[in-house]
Amino acid sequence: MDNFKIAYDLLQQPIKQFIGDQLPDWIIVDFSAHWAVEIGKEFGVPLVYFSVFCAATCVFLTSLENISKANTDHDVLPSPESLTSPRDFGAFRSTIAYRKHEAVDMHAGFYELNDSGISDSDRHNKILLACQAVAMRSCNEFEGEYLEAYKNKIGKLVIPTGLLPPEQPSAKIEISSDGSPNNVIFDWLDKQKPKSVVFVGFGSECKLSKQQVFEIAHGLGLSELPFLWALRKPNWADSDADALPPGFVERTSEKGLVCLGWVPQMEILGHPSVGGSLFHSGWGSVIETLQFGHVLVVLPFIIDQPLNARLLVEKDLAVEVKRREDESFCKDDIAKTLRHAMVAEEGEKLRSNARKAAKVFGDHKLHQDHYIGEFVHYLKNNVTTCK
Questions:
Q1: DSSP 367
Q2: Three-state DSSP state, 17
Q3: What pLDDT shows up at residue 29?
Q4: Consecutive H or E run containing 47
Q5: Which residue has the higher pLDDT, 233 or 60?
Q6: Residues with Cβ within 8 Å of residue 66, at least 6 apart in sequence
Q7: Among 47, 14, 5, 51, which Cα is nearest to 30's?
Q8: pLDDT grade, residue 77 (50/70/90)?
Q9: Where, residue-wise, is CATH 3.40.50.2000 in the chain?
Q10: Nearest CA to 51 among 168, 146, 116?
Q11: Could you tell me the pLDDT band of residue 385, with boundaries at 50, 70 and 90?
Q12: C-alpha radius of gyration, the chain, whole number
């Protein structure tokens, strides 16, 4: 990640050249491009900070900081312990916070200097201080109270852009006769009962240890639920066979399917046999999954994932896998949590809430026409007053 930030910062000169040549009406920028502030000032182009994080995450982290100035005094940084306490926002009290082990990792990654020479916190604060408004991948229907709390905290206009759900696939991927992995996936899904399958996927950023992968595998087996697991071969595995416990594929062949490598996730989530998802609770994956009304089982690891998980639990849309003090989790808790979400009577409220949430998360007209429309309206009608 440090190398990526160093490389990203090398974009400063070509983007400055581009802005100078084109003189756009706005620069819309994420938290990382801190150098866009100087470029905007030099050419008189206002900035909008676009956050790909939810409002709950943003207001939780921002509530720790003095945003009236860029924070460059590393002696007054928030402590890891301060990340473990929920916030009281006056109108409501939030329940979201980091666990102890999560707080230590997040504090180091966000607040401490890295090889790029500037911390993520300083990048974020510099952009936030200079921007004209904040656009956020969220909506009032899901977290209106957090959007309002964030606006009150930063004292700037906060414009929800909607959830920007990806287009749902219009039809299942065409099945050919070449025996490709996609054929196997959809042939298998077609044989399962409606809403019975758990889709398991932890993306590409979470690097799961051997113990973690094996506990998930054993937990899936113990749950006795049908599952489809999209698993990238870990770096510690010498071969595909080494990525899973010995004999796991054979023991679970009647119940589950493991796909090593890339899978067409949106088409899988849209298949009628899928009813739930075990995943890391990244914000993009939350949006992808809830637009189909699937029940969520969350096992967060890094960055905003723990806060997303707590938010979903707060909203009665997810159940989180229990962890021990040393941050480990066990197969029994994986199995217990999956069964609670998917089939247990006490999990019916979760399943019902997930189905209701699909009406918001999957409403493309709401997000595209209303929210994006409002954002475009703001950009068109405020540019002359900002320059």
A1: I
A2: helix
A3: 97
A4: strand 47-51
A5: 60
A6: none
A7: 51
A8: confident
A9: 1-161, 181-362
A10: 146
A11: low
A12: 22
| Among the listed residues 290, 253, 256, the one whose alpha carbon sits nearest the alpha carbon of residue 275 | 290
Q: Which two tokens stand for residue 194?
A: 């409606």
| Three-state DSSP class for residue 83 | helix
pLDDT tens digit sequence for 294-312: 999 999 999 999 999 999 9
Q: What residues have CB less than 8 Å from 75, skipping those under 6 apart?
A: none
Identify the helix (H) or strand (E) that includes residue 229: strand 227-231
Residue (of 302, 266, 267) closest to 283 by Cα position? 302
Cβ contact 122:70 at 8 Å = yes
DSSP assignment string, 108-159: HHHHS--TTSS-HHHHHHHHHHH-SEEEES--HHHHHHHHHHHHHHHTSEEE
Pick the CATH number of 181-362 from 3.40.50.2000, 3.90.1150.10, 3.40.30.10, 3.90.25.10: 3.40.50.2000
Alpha carbon separation from 116 to 120, 302, 327 (Å, rounded): 10, 20, 29
CA distance to 6, 74, 105, 313, per residue, from 32 (Å): 11, 19, 19, 29
- Number of Cβ within 10 Å of residue 160's Cβ equals 23
State the Cα torsion 252-293-291-258 to the nearest 10°. Answer: 0
Per the prediction, the chain carries an average pLDDT of: 92
Please give the structure tokens belonging to residue 364: 């493309």
| Token pair in block for residue 315 | 């909203």
CATH code assigned to 1-161:
3.40.50.2000
Q: How far is residue 336 from each of residues 196, 298, 332, 341, measured CA to CA in Å?
A: 16, 13, 6, 9
C-alpha distances out from residue 225 to 184, 193, 214, 246, 333, Å: 19, 11, 17, 20, 14
- Give pTM, 2 decimals: 0.93
